[in-house]
Write a structure and sequence with these properties.
The complex is a heterodimer of chains A (259) and B (215). Chain A is of the alpha/beta class. Chain A has eleven helices and twelve strands. An eight-stranded parallel β-barrel of chain A has the order 1-4-5-6-7-10-11-12, surrounded by six helices. In chain A, helix 9 packs across helix 11. The longest helix of chain A is centred in the middle third of the chain and has 11 residues. In chain B, a hairpin with a 2-residue loop joins strand 12 and strand 13. Chain B is globular and about 45 Å long. In chain B, the strands form three sheets. Chain B has an eight-stranded mixed β-sheet, sandwiched between helices. Chain B has a single domain, classed as Class I glutamine amidotransferase (GATase) domain (Rossmann fold, 3-Layer(aba) Sandwich), CATH 3.40.50.880. The chains are: A alpha/beta (259), B alpha/beta (215). At the A-B interface, loops of A face helix 1, strand 7, strand 9 and helix 6 of B.
């Protein structure tokens, strides 16, 4: 059977690794390629690089950076941030990214998901959704709303509806990032993760809030996630990837232990 | 020198990078003569069988690969390259290369919580020894992304199995041809080691006498 995936997220800003707290303050915490190589050797299953300000500033992701990563990391990695066209996606795929994440641009023009899926395949097309709790209403029946531009702009779109639409449009995977939980280290937004995971037929990745190994365990068990994104919990050396995996393995979650 | 067949089927650069990581020179080409004269061939591929086959035929790569195979050139197929070496595929009506008897079939899953494509890390269990699988231990996992899998007619061509609801063939071999449904170039250290073994492989498979043969 497939193993549950542990995915490290590296927010890159001007070639440096940054970490945001509730998407607002960011601090420089080192060289992203060095960190990525360290996680790779320590058994991370996948990596995701977000160029965190690319989308707000309408900049492109650095292709050279992606090529450097691809020359050192021999596991799948995805990139996101500021992808606005099929050409962007194709260039990143050719530069070595296994998957490409779309977020804000797909909310603004949903056909983008279909276009990218046709060009590089659904399995390489990831819809990344930033989600915030909202009052339940006829417009937002699930009580979770999609926000864009790095969490700064509410859209009035229901997160569950958007997840299903993303799948129909051709996304091959969903990243569900809780803005409320992001950077808090208090655990993933489990209800949201489970709601999405149970209503689509494609893999769902939990994102935002990991602070303890138990949070990962709960994302996979209660949250029904196929993968979980970690950031702070490994960036500051509180836990190694190995330790997180050992915890999961000891608690009966199937993870890749030989590497 | 490893010749990588570039037939417009997805990203071959990741295979090139992996070769360079293990210190092996490689060249990507879609030229017939280079393939026929290759020392070693990697036949990678991501994408759909029908368009891949059309391109192969258009460029004469089908006959070039068949000729290299007949001459004993060691060949490693990866992913789609492990599927279209069989006679046919459920992904389209077009005949495939027919280097190994069998067909490629789509996952038919009963459990609706299991997703297609089968994407992620899964265990590869060796069922017959092969120089390319040498050293693979129980619990060793490799990276997969696919909705179809190869189904050789003869059991003797199946070298490894993986589970996704039921068992499927994740590595097959026939003479100087070996093929993996998983991506060694994306499977970390264990994948790179498989590529290293391929770089050293002379294309022969030692015959291990079985007990029933009585000697």
């Amino acid at each position: 059977m497939l193993s549950k995936r542990l995915i490290a997220c590296l927010d890159v800003r001007d070639g440096k690794l940054a970490k945001s707290v509730r998407f607002v303050d960011t601090i420089d915490i080192g060289d992203p390629i060095e960190k990525a190589s360290q996680y790779y050797r320590d058994g991370i299953d996948e990596l995701v690089f977000y160029d965190i300000n690319a989308s707000r500033e309408e900049r492109d992701i650095d292709i050279e950076f992606v090529e450097k990563v691809a020359a050192e990391i021999f596991i799948p990695f995805s990139v996101g941030g500021g992808i606005r066209s099929v050409e962007d996606a194709t260039r990143l795929r050719l530069a070595g990214a296994e998957k490409v994440n779309v977020n804000t641009a797909a909310v603004k023009r949903k056909e983008l998901i279909t276009e990218i899926a046709r060009a590089i395949g659904s399995q390489s097309t990831v819809l990344s959704m930033d989600v915030r709790r909202a009052d339940t209403s006829s417009q937002i029946p699930s009580g979770y709303e999609i926000v864009i531009n790095d969490g700064t702009t509410p859209t009035g779109i229901d997160a569950l509806k958007w997840a299903r639409m993303g799948e129909e449009l051709g996304a091959g995977e969903l990243v569900v990032n809780s803005i409320d939980a992001d950077g808090t280290k208090e655990g993933y937004e489990l209800e949201l993760t489970r709601l999405v995971a149970d209503s689509v037929g494609i893999p769902v990745i939990a994102s935002g809030g990991a602070g303890e190994p138990e949070h990962l365990y709960r994302a996979f068990t209660e949250g029904h996630a196929d993968g979980a994104i970690v950031a702070s919990i490994v960036h500051y050396g509180e836990y190694t990837c190995r330790q997180l995996k050992e915890y999961l393995d000891n608690h009966g979650v199937k993870v890749r232990m030989n590497y | 020198m490893i010749t990588i067949i570039d037939y417009d089927a997805g990203n071959i650069r990741s295979v090139q990078r992996a070769c360079s990581e293990i210190g092996v020179r490689s060249v990507a080409t879609d030229a017939q003569t280079e393939i026929i004269n290759a020392e070693k061939i990697i036949f990678p591929g991501v994408g759909a069988a029908p368009s891949a086959m059309s391109y192969m035929i258009e460029k004469g790569l089908d006959s070039a690969l068949a000729e290299a195979f007949a001459c004993g050139v060691p060949i490693l197929g990866i992913c789609l390259g492990a599927q279209i070496i069989l006679d046919s595929s459920e992904e389209g009506d077009q005949p495939c290369l027919g280097l190994v008897p069998g067909k490629t079939v789509r996952f038919q899953l009963q459990n609706r919580s299991l997703k297609i494509p089968h994407m992620g890390w899964n265990e590869v269990k060796t069922v017959q020894s092969h120089p390319l699988l040498d050293g693979i231990k129980p619990g060793d996992e490799f990276y997969f992304v696919h909705s179809f899998y190869p189904q050789p007619v003869e059991e003797k061509n199946i070298y490894a199995l993986s589970d996704y609801e039921s068992s499927f063939c994740s590595a097959l071999g026939f003479r100087n041809l070996f093929a993996t449904q998983f991506h060694p170039e994306k499977s970390g250290r264990l994948g790179l080691q498989l590529l290293e073994r391929f770089a050293r492989w002379d294309g022969t498979v030692p015959v291990i006498p079985t007990a029933s043969e009585g000697h």
